[in-house]
Specification:
By secondary structure, the chain is mainly α. Helix content is 68%, strand content 0%. It starts with a helix and ends with a helix.
Length: 158
């Protein structure tokens, strides 16, 4: 469950706070677990909702960074192969809160934009826009990492 919290948090201390708050909610709601699904899935949903509530309290609904003009640069299919899971998680954690939350809900948790909009109290178009911006930022950062890796590889062979 810590991994779930880490995906939504900006840093480890924030993830630890979410985890603690989530387990308090699990304990408080334990009598409502109907045992018709897995306990792990039930706890996971509580953790995701805890992260969403944490996001709402921080009031970052209207993040605007003028990223609409970022070019859509294609990312090589091999771009992700050089990244480990930890590096990818680190990239996701650097996203602005709103973008990171929507990205996690859509790409990791599998919610659609209508569900995300309902959870976050925003419009579906906002959810789509934040996902697109998150993807652009991640693409650019992966491209930068690949360029840096290629450049370092060339200079180390000289």
């Amino acid at each position: 469950m810590y991994a779930v919290c880490l995906r939504y948090a900006r840093h480890e201390l924030e993830a630890q706070d979410m985890l603690q708050e989530g387990f308090i909610r699990v304990y408080e709601k334990l009598d409502s677990f109907r045992q018709d699904g897995s306990l792990e899935g039930w706890v996971r949903r509580i953790m995701v909702h805890t992260a969403i509530n944490h996001y709402r309290r921080k009031s970052f609904h209207m993040e605007r960074f003028g990223l609409e003009v970022l070019p859509e640069t294609p990312v090589s299919p091999d771009a992700l192969s050089g990244l480990g899971a930890g590096e990818l998680l680190d990239l996701v954690r650097t996203l602005p809160d709103g973008y990171r939350t929507v990205f996690n809900l859509y790409a990791i948790e599998g919610f659609d934009h209508a569900e995300i909009a309902s959870m976050l109290g925003c419009g579906e178009s906002t959810s789509r826009s934040q996902l697109a911006k998150a993807r652009r930022i991640l693409q650019e950062r992966i491209s930068e990492l690949n360029t840096t890796t290629l450049h370092e590889g060339r200079t180390s062979h000289r």
